[in-house]
Amino acid sequence: MGNTNGAYIRNLALVGHAGSGKTSLAEGIAFAAGLTNRRGTIQEGNTLSDYHPDEIARKHSINSSLISLTTGTAPQTTKLNLLDTPGYSDFVGEVRAALHVADTAVMLVDAQHGVEAGTATVWEFCEHDQNSVIFVINKLDHTESHFDDTVAQLKSRFGHEVAVVQFPLNPGDGFSTIVDVVKMKALKFAADGSYTEEAIPASAEARADELHRELVEIVAESDDALMEEFFANDGKLEESHLSQGLKASLAHRKLFPVLCASAEKNIGTRRVLDFVVANAPAPEEHIADVRGINPDTKKEVSLSTAPKDATTLFVFKTVSESHLGDLSFFRVFHGELHPGTDLVNESNGKSERIAQVFTMSGKNRKEATSVPNGDIAAAVKLKDTHTNNTLSSKSFPVVLTPIEFPAPVITSAVRSKNKGDEEKMSMGLHTMHEEDPTFILRIDPEMHQMLIEGQGELQLDIIVKRLRERYKVDVEIVEPLIPFRETIKTPADTRYRHRKQSGGAGQFGEVAIKLQPRKRGEGYEFIDAIVGGVISGKHIPAVDKGIHDFLTHGPLAGYPVVDLAVTLYDGKEHPVDSNENAFKTAGKMAFKEAFLSAKPVLLEPIFDIEITVPGDHMGDVLGDISSRRGKIAGMDSKNGMEVIRAKVPLAELYHYSTRLRSLTQGRAQHKQSFSHYEEAPRDVADKIVAESAKHRVAEVE
Ligand SMILES: Nc1nc2c(ncn2[C@@H]2O[C@H](COP(=O)(O)OP(=O)(O)OP(=O)(O)O)[C@@H](O)[C@H]2O)c(=O)[nH]1
Ligand SMILES: [Mg+2]
After folding, report:
1. DSSP H or E stretch at residue 114
2. Domains 410-478 and 485-598 share a fold
3. 21 lines ligand 1 (CB under 6 A)
4. How far is the centre of ligand 2, averaged over its atoms, from the C-alpha of 181 (Å)?
5. What kind and span of H or E run contains 237?
6. Residue 156 to residues 114, 163, 207, 392, 560: CA-CA distances in angstroms?
7. What is the predicted pLDDT for the residue at 5?
C-alpha cells in the first residue's frame, strides 16, 4: 500500500434517503476496484455491507458498514474507506457518526423521487460537519427517472454551487451512456461496468458545452486567479487549472458536483470511483488543522503541535454481534497506530492497549500491521472505551469534538416476560446504549417502569430482537404509563374519629379538617389551625404524616395528590389512648373521606409540540392534532416549511413520530416537551379510575 502520510486515502460516507441505492453503489464500487469478483444484489441478499440477517430480510441497511479497498496499480494506489450508511431515519445516529469521520459525503438521490426528506436531513449534517459533497443521481435506468427536475431541485435547495459534471444521454430503459462535461466525452458503459470514451454526439453537444461552461464558471468563482483567467480567456480555463480548481473547490465546499449512475445496472459506477479517487479530498486536504481540547488545561490544542510519535484516534462506532465479533471502529487523527500501543481514553482516564487492528470490508476483516494518519479501521473491542471517546498518547492528551447524536423522538416502556430477568434485561439494554448512543434507557421512578427511547419504532423493535438473540431475554414493548395527578375541585369538610379498644392499650384520635382546592402548580399545604390545645402540639404533625401517604398514592386512582390545602381546625384526644399512630390513622381516614367528597379529578400531563411540515401536508397534520385532543397554539413559516405549535395530552402522543412520518411520507419532524397539567376529560379519567380499581382487586386476590 502507498505511502503513510494519508495523501492517498479517501474517506467517503455513502448517504441519502432510504432506498436511494447506497448499498448497491458500494457493491458496484467494490466490484470495480477488484475487491470482489461478483457484484452482490439487494434482491439476492449477498451484498458486502448488508450482511446482517435483519438487513437481508428487510432489504434495507440498518447499520453502517465499512468497506475498505485499494484501487489503482502500485505505486499509484489509493485507499478508499467507504462507509455505507442506512437511509431510514431510525438510524440517523449511524449517519452522523459516519459523516463525523468521513471527509466526503457521496449523496445518492433517486432520479425517480428527486430530493426527499432524507436528502435534506443529511445535507444539514454535512453542513454541520463541513463535509465535501458529491451528488450521485441514481436509478437513471428507471423509466420514470427525472434527471433535469432533480438537478433543478438540488440547485434550489442546496445552492448554485451544485454543478452538473455528468448528464445521462439515454435515461430510462436501455440506459447506457453518460456525457461527462469535464472530460467532454460520452462514456458508454458495457454490461461488466467498464466504459469506453466516445465523442459527444452532435445532438448533445450544445448542452454539454453549456454545462461545461457553467461548471467552469463555478470553479472559477472559488478562486481569484481562476476568475481572472476565466474572464481573460473567454470563459475557459486551462485543463490543469480546471482540474486543480475543481479539486480545491470540492474540498472547500464551493462546488457540489453532480454525477450519474444506475447502481443496479452498474452504469456510471466505475466513473464515480475514478472521480472520487481523482477529486475527493484526502484527509489533510479536507481538514488541514484538526483541533481538540486538552483535558487537563481545558484549552484548545491543534494536533499539528503534537509530537510526531504521538497517536490520536477517535472511536465512532462500537459493535458486538455474533456475525462480526466485538469491535471498536476508529479513525486515526494523528500519528500512526501500531498494534500493541498503549493509549489513554481521555474521557475516563483509563489506559487501553490496542492489541489487534483490522481492515474491514463488511463482515470480513484482515489483520493490519499499522494504521496511518487519516485512515479508518477497527480494533478488537476496547474494554473501557465507547463510541465518541478519544484515545491519545500520554505525551499529548486530547479530546476531539464528539459526534452530536440526535435527541430521542419516541418513547416506549419495556417489561421482561419472565420474572427474574429484569437485571439481565437492563444489563443488555445498557450495552446496546453503549453501542448505539441514539438509543436511551431510562428508569421512571414514579411509574416504576423501564423506558426505552430512540429514533423510531423500527430501531426499538430491533433492539428488543437483539436482546432476545444475544441475552436470551424476552421482553415486550408496552405503552408507557402516564403520570396522572389527583386533585379536588370543591372544598370539603370532614370529621373523623379513630377509636379501637380491643385488649391491651386503646387507640384514640379525632380530627376535623377542611380541604381547599389550590391553583395548578401550588402543591400541597398543611395548615395547623388548632386553638385552645384540643389536640396537643406533639400529635399535630402525625395528622400531616397520615395524609402524606396520599401525596404519592392518591385515593382516586393511586396517582400523587397535588394542589390542595388541608386545614386541621378541630379534634379531640384521650389522655391515655392517644398517640402518634392513632392521629396518623385519623388524619389519613379523614383526608380520604374529604377528598372523595370534594369532586376529585384526574390531571393529565400536557405537552408542547412543535411540528415542522411542508405546506402541502399542513391540513393532514392539523386534522390529526385535533383528533388527539390537541389545541393549536400558533403557526409560522420558516425556511419554506410551516411550523405548527400545539398543546397535546401526553396520553395521545404515543408513537406520534411514526404517525407523523406516515402522514407526511417522512417529510415532517417534531419536538416535544412537558408543558403543564390539566384536568383530564371525564371519559379518560373514568377509564383510568376503573383500571386502577381492577389492579387493586387483583392485588387483594
Ligand atoms: N432500477 C434501479 N433500481 C435500483 C438502482 N439502485 C438500487 N436499486 C434498487 O433500489 C432498492 C434499494 O437499493 P439499496 O442499494 O438497498 O438502497 P440503499 O440506499 O442502500 O437503501 P437503505 O440502506 O435502506 O437506505 C433495491 O431494490 C435495489 O435493487 C438503480 O440504479 N436502478
Ligand atoms: Mg443500504
Report:
1. none
2. no
3. yes
4. 29
5. none
6. 12, 12, 20, 43, 54
7. 58
Residue whose CA lies nearest to ligand 1 atom number 26: 42
Task: Establish whether residue 52 lines the binding site of ligand 1, counting it when its CB lies within 6 angstroms of any ligand atom.
Answer: no
Question: What is the architecture of the domain spanning 485-598?
Answer: 2-Layer Sandwich (3.30)
- Give every CB contact of residue 469 below 8 A, 6+ residues apart in sequence: 322
- Superfamily of domain 410-478 in CATH is Elongation Factor G (Translational Gtpase), domain 3 (3.30.70.870)
Specify whether the CB–CB gap between 373 and 335 falls below 8 A: yes
Q: Which helix (H) or strand (E) holds 592?
A: helix 580-596
- Does the beta carbon of 247 lie inside 6 Å of ligand 1? no
Pairing of strands 104-110, 9-16: parallel
Tell me the C-alpha distance between 548 and 526, whole Å. 10
Set of cell numbers at residue 225: 486567479
Does the C-beta of 116 come closer than 6 Å to ligand 1? no
Is the pLDDT confidence value at 457 over 80? yes
Q: The pTM is what?
A: 0.86
The CA distance from 301 to 399, in Å, is 9
Q: Tell me the per-residue pLDDT of 324-361, one tens digit each, with 9 for 90 and over.
A: 778 999 999 999 999 999 999 998 999 999 999 999 99
Question: Does the CB atom of residue 17 touch ligand 1 within 6 A?
Answer: no
Phi, psi (degrees; rounded to nearest 5) at 396: -145, 75
β-pairing, 162-164 vs 256-260, is parallel
Q: How far apart are CA 239 and CA 245, in angstroms?
A: 10
Q: Is 375 in the pocket of ligand 1 (CB under 6 A)?
A: no
Helix (H, G, I), strand (E, B) or coil at 250: helix
Which CA distances in Å does 689 have to 153, 368, 485? 54, 64, 12
Question: Among 17, 23, 46, which residue has the most ligand 1 atoms within 8 Å of its CB, making it the best to mutate?
Answer: 23
Q: Which residue has the higher pLDDT, 649 or 89?
A: 649
In whole angstroms, what is the distance from residue 389 CA to residue 381 CA? 13
Copy the grid coordinates of residue 465: 430482537
Strand bridging mode 410-416 / 399-400? unpaired
Ligand 2 centroid vs 191 CA: distance in angstroms? 23
Domain boundaries, the chain: 9-199+253-286, 298-400, 410-478, 485-598, 604-683
The confidence band for 269, taking pLDDT boundaries of 50, 70 and 90, is very high
24 close to ligand 1 (CB < 6 Angstrom) = yes
At CB < 8 A and 24+ separation, what contacts does 148-157 make? 149/114, 150/109, 150/111, 150/114, 150/115, 151/258, 153/114, 153/115, 154/109, 154/115, 154/256, 154/258, 157/115, 157/119, 157/120, 157/123
DSSP 77: -
Question: Are residues 483 and 601 in contact, defined by beta-carbon separation less than 8 angstroms?
Answer: no
CATH of 604-683, one of 3.40.630.30, 3.30.70.270, 3.30.70.240, 3.10.590.10: 3.30.70.240
CB-based contact 455:91 (threshold 8 Å):
yes
The domain made up of 9-199+253-286 has a fold known as: Rossmann fold (3.40.50)
Q: What is the mean pLDDT of residues 158-178?
A: 96
Mutate to test the pocket of ligand 1, among 14, 29, 42, 62 (most ligand atoms within 8 A of CB): 42
Query: What single DSSP character describes residue 308?
Result: T
Residue nearest to atom 24 of ligand 1 (CA): 60
Residue 264: CB within 6 Å of ligand 1?
yes
Asked whether the predicted pLDDT for residue 700 surpasses 60, the reply is no
Tell me the CATH number for domain 298-400. Answer: 2.40.30.10
Q: Interior CA angle at 451 toward 446 and 455, to 5°?
A: 140
The pLDDT tens digits for 242-254 are 999 999 999 999 9
